Amino acid sequence: MTTIDTNPVQSSKGWNIGLWVVQALLAAMFLMAGATKLMSGSAELVAMGMGWAENAPLLLIKFIGLAEVAGALGLILPAATRIMPQLTKLAAVGLCVVMVLAAGVHIFRGEFEVVPVNAVLFALAALVVWGRANKAPIAPRG
């Protein structure tokens, strides 16, 4: 006789661990990317291979960097502290928007080789949104 494990706590524990791994990887990537944009000028970013920065206003570059750093912090801090953990989902949504816009810029500029990276990062951020809403939500401190 086979038994089916219907314990939702056990399955959500696996989801919780997996989502934390994804959140940490995304946070590290967006923190590095955002900090680079915040600390570098247009010419330095172009030299690093970010060709789109040559025609972008410096304030836009800084805004994108700030959005990426804020998104990275939002993926970790609200969930880790359990203070307003729903902000983690909103941070992931914001990073999804950043990736859609980034893909649009790369497509417009003919930089098709970068779009798969945007798609993967979008998919991982969307997984965090879905997973934290459905599979392993984090309860607020109470």
TrEMBL record:
InterPro entries: DoxX (IPR032808)
A Pfam family of this chain: DoxX_2
Transmembrane regions: 17-36, 56-78, 90-108, 114-133
One GO cellular component, as annotated: membrane
Bilayer disposition of the protein: Multi-pass membrane protein
Signal peptide as annotated in the record: none
Cellular localization per UniProt: Membrane
Domain of life (superkingdom): Bacteria
Main location: membrane
Keywords, comma-separated and alphabetical: Membrane, Transmembrane, Transmembrane helix
UniProt name for this protein: DoxX-like protein
Lineage of producing organism: Bacteria, Pseudomonadati, Pseudomonadota, Alphaproteobacteria, Rhodobacterales
